Predict the structure.
Amino acid sequence: MSYTDDDALPRAAVAVVAGYGAVIAAAFIAAGLLPVHDLAARALTVAVVATVAAALIEDWRAAAGVTVFAALVFVGFLAHRYGVLTGDASAWSYTPVVVAGAVLGRGRRWWHAWRRVADPQPPTGRRVIDGVIVPGSLIDDAALSLRVADGNPSPAR
């Protein structure tokens, strides 16, 4: 995605804000429900949010920003206290779980995009609603004009 489109930048900004909000919500849930010393479960909670965000956000840079934010929130608030990123280095050993989740989510998005390009679906042809051809494309208009030219504007069956 490039930012030449007028709506691309605002969409990316909204996606980042929504991702940050989801990470903060997951951090509150993890802090409230999980024990303090269960860092693996807390990291997994944040990793799930990073995975879903990476799969849903269009722009890879926005998804990367949400992933970095998720890792920093985990280390600063779920592993340590008061947003301190220094201290016990063992908390940083859980951040590859968050990154791996984001890579899986992004990989899923790329896989589906590649499949759409590699195996395009053929056009369905005419659009028929209640047995009547609905114009709207060149194929539909050509089929409708042929039927009218034959003197038979009857429904296509």
